Amino acid sequence: MHDVTALKELLREPKHVFITTHHKPDADALGSSLGLAGYLRKKGHHVTVVTPSDYPDFLSWMPGNEDVVVYDPRRNDRQVREIIGTAEVLFCLDFSALSRIHELGEYVRQAPGTKVLVDHHEQPEPFADIAFSFPTAAATAELIFEIIRDLGDQALITPAIGECLYAGIMTDTGSFRHPSTSRNVHLIIAELLDAGIDLSSVHRRIYDSHSEERLRFLGFVLKDKLRVLREYNTAYIAITADELKQYHSKTGDTEGLVNFALSIEGIVFAAILIDRVQAVKISFRSVGSFSVSEFSRRHFNGGGHHNAAGGISHEPLEATVQKFLSLLPDYQADLVTAPLAVAPPQ
Ligand code: 5GP
Ligand code: MN
């Protein structure tokens, strides 16, 4: 049970509520935001969800998507400042540092409303008045479910709200295969099924809705761009801005590519480095004891979770790749292949 006393008091009367989540929202970020928004609207609150950037098309099916305000500094800066400045309650979901919401970070920091953090990343920044920060949770959507339940409102979870939350839990657990997939996670899914979610349709809408071009891009990346460094049990992919252009890459098209690198037998550390022109964005993944959040925090101004993290570099792509490669020898002793556990004979 979460201590929801302060939150319950805060939401006793209908309020103007602002919800935001991290830059380039993924399914957990958007699903948590729209799941919470759906619930709060049912409670009579006036809710605006603002994302700091656009997000992949394969998330646009989520109920409430049509009302999301996508922040664009050239187009709606004033409107968004006004929303943030007048919000009585500001929910910050699925991120632990205000830098992850870019320009919105300063606006939120200075906002007079009550700030509520719901998140599962490591090392939260202390900017919130009420914080639900649980790095062991599999997904922020798991926490949103629990908070709604602990507020005594589980009965208000409709299939629409439930499918948003399911999408977040499904994707952040890697379809229920990461070690974060606890008993609690499965019990919550059972509750969501009781609420009427269509689980396989969520799966299809997220994983089986690629464009043909995205699949061709995947083929190119796997054939020509994947590098395997056996001596470090490491695999990585570096993608130039020209290559993104050549394949008409859209937001979301590179998501999940890093997992292919990690799926090679014996590989414990995988990275994808993408030249986004303004900066090189990096995703790290690991299996076992090697902490990519620590690696990313120390060397690439990032962070995240033990086995999944992100970072950023303001050097050119090639220099960033060289920096990454030059670090590996220091970690050779940590990059050991974990033997796959086998259940003991009965
Ligand atoms: P992804 O590689 O899928 O973008 O992110 C992996 C995890 O690390 C996610 O939980 C994401 O929120 C987090 N993450 C991604 N980029 C950054 C970053 O630049 N800084 C921090 N602190 N976390 C990040
Ligand atoms: Mn998450």
TrEMBL record:
Residues 17-169 form the DDH domain. Pfam families: DHH (PF01368), DHHA1 (PF02272). InterPro entries: DDH_dom, DHH_sf, DHHA1_dom, Oligoribo/pAp-PDE_c-di-AMP_PDE. GO terms for molecular function: nucleic acid binding. Signal peptide: none annotated. Residues 250-328 form the DHHA1 domain. Transmembrane segments: none annotated. Coiled coil: none annotated. PANTHER family: BIFUNCTIONAL OLIGORIBONUCLEASE AND PAP PHOSPHATASE NRNA. This is Bifunctional oligoribonuclease/PAP phosphatase NrnA. It comes from Hymenobacter busanensis.
